[in-house]
Amino acid sequence: MTATTSTEPSLIRRLRGLSGEVIKFGVVGLVGVVVNAVVFWVCLQGEGLIHSLAGFIATAVAIGTNYLGYRYWLYRERDAASRRREITLFLIFSGIGMLIENGILAFSVHVLHYTSSGSQLIAKNVVGLAAGTVFRFFSYRTWVFKAMPELAEPQVVGEAELLLAAEQPQYAK
After folding, report:
1. Taking the model in full, what pTM does it have?
2. Burial 101-116, CB ≥16 within 10 A → b, else e
3. 55 CB contacts (<8 Å, ≥6 apart)?
4. pLDDT, tens digit, for every residue of 123-152?
């Protein structure tokens, strides 16, 4: 009877890896929040169309900032074989996150009638951003920045090569 060991990481190891990913995601996200809030605040100081589009302008600038952080810091080891696919999916899921974020802002302004700058900042950059961030985290790590397949352990590869070599017919010289 032979004993085998599982190559699957334990639940604790997977949670530790996920916690590191969540922390880095949070750092990149925090930079995006600051960019988002600053651009939003600047846009709210204007009048007319820019005031109406402030949430979308701020979120679009933050999305660009966050892509750079995710691609080149957090998910730099992930598969980047198809940059076009990655950017397309990133923009789609970021757009959905933007709709979640600004949908909560619109609900706050048009349904709850919270029209002060402070209440709009809270609706968009606290409640909306939290909901959009949860959505973005799971969609980015699942579909956008896909993990590269893990390579087999060298010992397993060596044993497999020996087995294959043993099965090859040996020709006499």
Report:
1. 0.64
2. bbebbeebbeeeeeee
3. 40, 101, 102, 105, 124
4. 987 999 899 989 998 998 888 887 666 555
